[in-house]
Amino acid sequence: MEEYLAMASRGEDVQSNINSSITGTIAYWNDAEPHNQGQYWYFWLKPSGKFSSHSEPRICLVVDENNPSIEMLKTAAESKSNQEFELNVFIIPRQRDYLQFVVSKDDEVKQIRSGTSTLKESDQNETELSPIIQQTETVPIYIHPVEKWNLLVKWTGDASEDDFKELFNPLGAESVVMLKSEVEIDERQAQINFKTQVDAQNALDQTDGFVIRGS
Questions:
Q1: Is residue 8 predicted with pLDDT exceeding 60?
Q2: Which Gene Ontology molecular-function terms are recorded (predicted)?
Q3: Model pTM?
Q4: What is the 8-class DSSP label of residue 146?
Q5: Which CATH architecture has domain 149-207?
Q6: Percent of the chain residues topping a pLDDT of 90
């Protein structure tokens, strides 16, 4: 994972024949309905966070409607909640256009070559499913929601977003979101997001009672 994160931060391509873990949000592959062809539903995993500059911004998941995760994916796509998911998959060759994976009802996965033998957005509704059935190689894939942990900071005064980043980023914060208080006009709030509960608890312990510039 550390190796892949470093590679993604440099904007390099995902390497062939290694396990990659990519975090992103779920949307339907096309905005227009239908979002499925027969029993297969088409989703777009959009790399986010540290992966937002990833060189493969178009990852297509073709999922059997009988897969146990189908309702979770459909709910995420329909609600547009930006719930993040983590995709762990073994990438075979790098593709010229986009990465595409077909996920069976039993979570068996075939990576399908992008290009002439795969679906394109422009001709999705006219393309038969036969190219998807072509044998490539079955590889393990896991996709699951990413847990988020956050601290809610309330204060009055002149503390800024940069002040909170300077304080919490060294403690493992992934992002700082400034919020508007609906309770008191003078009160301000910020949400500090962490990857794990341990990081959030550690940051809370180390900053309890901390004062930032007259806040």
A1: no
A2: RNA binding
A3: 0.50
A4: P
A5: 2-Layer Sandwich (3.30)
A6: 1
